Amino acid sequence: MPTRTTTGVTHYHVQKKRRAKFLEDWRANRRTIIASEDVTLHDSGRGHRVGVYVGVDGDKPTRTMDALAHEFDPGTTTTLHRHSWDVMVFVVAGWGWTEIDGERIEWGPGDSLHIPPWAWHRSGNDGDGTARYLTFSCEPLMDTMGMSVLEDAGHAEVSTLPGRPPYTEGPDGDDPYARRVRRVAREQRARRGGRLHTSWDDLELLITPRGTRTTFLLDRAIGYQASGMTMVMFEIARGRAQSMHRHPGEAWLYVVEGTGHSYMGTEPEGGDNHPWKKGDLIIVDHFLWHQHLNDDPENTAKVVRIHMFDSLLETMRALTDPLVLFEEPPDHIRDAQAGDPSTIEWPAIERPTWP
Ligand SMILES: [Fe+2]
Ligand SMILES: [Fe+2]
Fold first, then answer.
1. How many angstroms is it from 345 CA to the middle of ligand 1?
2. For residue 111, which of 128, 97, 125 has the smallest C-alpha distance?
3. Contact 41, 51 (CB under 8 A)
4. Is 243 found in the same domain as 206?
5. What is the whole-number distance in angstroms between the Cα of residue 121 and the centre of ligand 1?
6. Is the peptide bond prior to 140 cis by the omega test (within 30 degrees of 0)?
7. pTM above 0.70?
């Protein structure tokens, strides 16, 4: 590598050009709805099939998270692997299992899992039908920092493999180094003790002022220790809507059940409507005002929302304050959009089905 700078232009001009190009390239990459039929599944070499909703390996690059679909035929056991990023899993079909650092978790439709960074894991299907789940990982964010690492161990015994990266317990002392070692160790202990599984049977949906009823799937509020990704499910009543709001991009909604459309616009009026149906992924990517509406007068719509609010978005809010990164209309407009929740009759909560 040369060690002498030979460029004739200034740092200012290089940077200005690079930044303009980055955003220009990125804008060509915006999307709104990824239909389930546009996600092609491929044999993975791990023994299952995998397809990309959004992510660079499916030519749909993202900056913070990716979204993939995975399918497992009966009798499948995938290879064992681990990586430096964590993953949120939402099961949409079949009965199978995932082993995380040797701990076996049985799952069914509607269950959610958290796979922590550096945990050896594999999944399988002992049932008689195809099993399918979606994964949402923070690999793109790790990649922007040069910290994506993946190791595949084939069908090795997990007990013969090295555990998660070791860390040093803190020494006594009040110097900055001792404080850092203790702080990092404390954080790792907590991070490695998080919850791994939410069963569909334990979900309890609560009505919110935004006109929907919702439940945490994977969130620190219910004991998960994730990279800042959080997963919530909400249900829109028959023919009703969630109130409008806006926030930064890479907030995604996976349609578990139902048909409807999302309004998206730079202003609360005059934007575009984007229809969606079961199995689609709605991409809220442009800091647009958006509202999700259930078009079915007979059935509710269930949607799983994933975003990185708990780390990246909080950091962005701190760094860009006083810019407002999460906006809702005034309460009276919100309430008009949401409608009176007391008039809604909610159905029993059934496990999702696929297809
Ligand atoms: Fe994985
Ligand atoms: Fe949103």
1. 40
2. 97
3. yes
4. yes
5. 7
6. no
7. yes
Per-residue pLDDT of the chain (355 residues; tens, 9 = 90+): 667 766 678 888 888 888 888 888 888 888 999 999 999 999 999 999 999 999 999 999 999 999 999 999 999 999 999 999 999 999 999 999 999 999 999 999 999 999 999 999 999 999 999 999 999 999 999 999 999 999 999 999 999 999 999 999 988 999 999 999 999 999 999 999 999 999 999 999 999 888 899 999 999 999 999 999 999 999 999 999 998 999 999 999 999 999 999 999 999 999 999 999 999 999 997 899 999 999 999 999 999 999 998 899 999 999 999 999 999 888 888 888 888 878 888 999 999 999 9
- Minimum-distance ligand to the CA of 287? 2
Q: Mark whether 163 and 41 lie in a shared domain.
A: yes
The last residue of one of the domains, among 191, 222, 256, is: 191
Q: In 3D, which of 81, 77, 220 has the Cα closest to residue 149? A: 81
Mark whether 156 and 46 lie in a shared domain: yes
Rounded CA-CA distance 254/279 in Å is: 7
Q: Domain residues for 129?
A: 37-191
Q: Which single residue is written with the structure tokens 């907590």?
A: 190
> Ligand 1 centre from 84 Cα, in Å?
10
Task: Output the CA 117–ligand 2 centroid distance in Å.
Answer: 27
Between the CA of 171 and the centroid of ligand 2 the distance, in Å, is 45
Token pair 């249900």 is found at 235
CA atoms within 13 A on the CB side of 211: 26
Question: Are 306 and 269 within 8 A, CB to CB?
Answer: no
CA of 247 relative to ligand 2 center, distance in Å: 6
* Distance between Cα 281 and ligand 2 center (Å): 13
What is the distance in A from the centroid of ligand 2 to the CA of 251?
Answer: 7
Per the domain annotation, does 256 fall within a domain? yes
Q: Ligand 2 centroid vs 244 CA: distance in angstroms?
A: 8
